[in-house]
Design a protein that fits this description.
Helices cover 28% and strands 11% of the residues. It has helices spanning 58-62, 107-115, 137-142, 150-165, 168-173, 207-210, 239-250, 272-281, 302-309, 327-333, 377-382, 386-403, 418-438, and strands spanning 12-13, 47-49, 87-88, 130-132, 178-185, 213-218, 225-227, 256-262, 286-290, 312-317, 337-340, 363-364. α6 links the parallel β5 (178-185) and β6. α7 runs antiparallel to α12 (386-403). The chain is globular. The model is unreliable at 1-20 and 27-32 (pLDDT under 50).
């Protein structure tokens, strides 16, 4: 994840920072005559995109310097190339074509621009199976997260809901076919009290918002939140570039048994993170990448990170400030087998993009209580057979197409990327809701309920 420094720390090429693609509606929606034998390839897949007032999206980009109030960082350079950032030109032989300096907070912009190239858009909302709301929720709240005035923090979300509920599209399913994207963790939108000291907004606790589905980089324990991958720095144009990269990481000589990229969290006393750093630094088989900003934050440079990850068999993924980490997807991209310590880091999160059986692509070392845990990561990893290691890596490499976001200017022909997987899964979710309605059942039952067991260790004991 990008640090707080204002400069992009490597050679980049910047193009058209504020270009936003026009919607391209499938001509099938405008046919005046349909052959009776015609099978519409978009049947059940049409999406209508709301044309929101610009204050909810494009104006935020025009005022990009205001998006990081409370920090020293500047979001503006990362808006280049439809939100995927400036292109990395000199990767020192570590990367391939179409790698960019991508800021994960811009997922909302990336997803919106990819939606504008979606093959089944329609301008007729009555044909749509789903309604996309291009609200840049995370960018909007990033202006006010440090503002003690909760009315200011909550105002944009309340205004958006007022606008949406006045549209005819809302009344069809009362918002249950609506979805939006957040480039921040879902907890930023679930403030439980009106105390100014509490973090974030209460957007997801507002009654109308509960009827929508949010796709964010980290989901909460409520059923109307789903997690989708953090954007990596790789945004290939073609299937061939993906296949080429998969061959590249498959052939790597991995001289480190394991690696960890991160920085200490001294305020998290019961976190495995500090132990992971300590054990890594104390092992000749481990390579530690220090992400501490006071030490230059080597994690800001994708070349440095990928060079080490491509040279490592396993990549440790302990929770940090929240359950998830962008590093999960960087490690998959490098063919480095992720090692998880908590089910909330991946298994309970990325239900649409990663295998349900976590043992197929990762190593699980559950740490329920740091006070009593006496495990040794190196010994555990050395106990994994070579045959198992190779099988895990092959599964990881096979996941690469579905966890990257293809360049917004293109679309894969063979693979489905992270965008495609998310859209298809949401369309299935809406169809399941429609089925309940056809069966005379109440679609609100369970739709926005909390799941108190989602992130508990007991739910994932089958992976131990």
């Amino acid at each position: 994840m990008m640090g707080v420094n204002n400069e992009v720390p490597f050679s980049v090429k910047e193009l058209n920072p504020l270009v936003v693609l026009d919607n391209k509606t499938n001509p099938a929606t405008n046919y005046t005559f349909i052959d009776q034998n015609y099978i519409d390839p978009c049947s059940g897949r049409y999406i209508y995109v709301h044309d929101l007032p610009s204050r909810f999206n494009l104006d935020l980009l025009k005022n990009c310097r205001l998006l990081t109030r409370g920090t020293n960082s500047n979001m503006c350079p990362y808006l280049a190339n439809l939100g995927i950032g400036p292109e990395i030109e000199n990767s020192e032989g570590v990367l391939s074509k179409n790698w960019f300096s991508t800021n994960p907070f811009l997922l909302e912009v990336i997803f919106h621009n990819k939606m504008k190239k979606y093959e089944c858009l329609t301008n007729d909302s009555s044909l749509a199976s789903a309604i996309f709301v291009p609200f840049y929720a995370g960018l909007d709240i990033s202006q006010y997260l440090w503002n003690p005035n909760i009315s200011v923090r909550d105002s944009s979300g309340q205004d958006l809901l007022k606008w949406l509920t006045e549209r005819p599209e809302w009344k069809r399913m009362w918002g249950r076919d609506h979805f939006f994207i957040a480039g921040r963790i879902s907890w930023d939108f679930r403030r439980k009290t009106d105390e100014s000291s509490d973090w974030g907004t209460k957007f997801r606790f507002l009654p109308e918002s509960k009827n929508m589905t949010m796709l964010s980089v980290e989901a909460s324990s409520w059923n109307n939140d789903y997690a989708i991958p953090y954007p990596t720095n790789f945004h290939p144009l073609t299937d061939g570039e993906v296949l080429e990269w998969q061959s590249n990481v498959r052939s790597q000589n991995r001289r480190y048994l394991f690696t960890f990229a991160g920085s200490p969290r001294p305020d998290l006393n019961e976190s495995i993170r500090g132990v992971a750093i300590e054990q890594c630094r104390g092992s000749k088989a481990c390579k530690f990448i220090d992400c501490d900003v006071t030490n230059g934050n080597k994690c800001d440079n994708p070349i440095s990170v990928m060079r080490v990850f491509k040279s490592s068999v396993y990549c440790l993924q302990p929770p940090g400030d929240s359950y998830t980490r962008r590093s999960i997807f960087d490690s998959i991209l490098a063919g480095c087998i992720p090692v998880f310590f908590h089910p909330g880091t991946a298994y309970a999160q990325y239900l649409w993009h990663l295998p349900k059986n976590g043992t197929k692509y990762s190593v699980y070392i559950p740490v329920r209580d740091m006070k009593v845990w006496k495990g040794n990561v190196e010994e555990i990893l050395l106990g994994i057979s070579k045959e198992k290691e190779l099988a895990l890596r092959e599964e990881v490499i096979g996941l690469i197409p579905r966890i990257v976001y293809a360049n917004p200017r293109s679309k894969f022909e063979i693979f489905g990327d992270a965008f495609d997987v998310a859209v298809d899964a949401f369309l299935e979710r809406v169809e399941n809701i429609r089925r309940l309605i056809r069966e005379g059942k109440d679609p609100s039952v369970g739709f926005a309920d909390g799941d108190d067991y989602k992130y508990t260790f007991s739910e994932w004991e089958k992976f131990e």
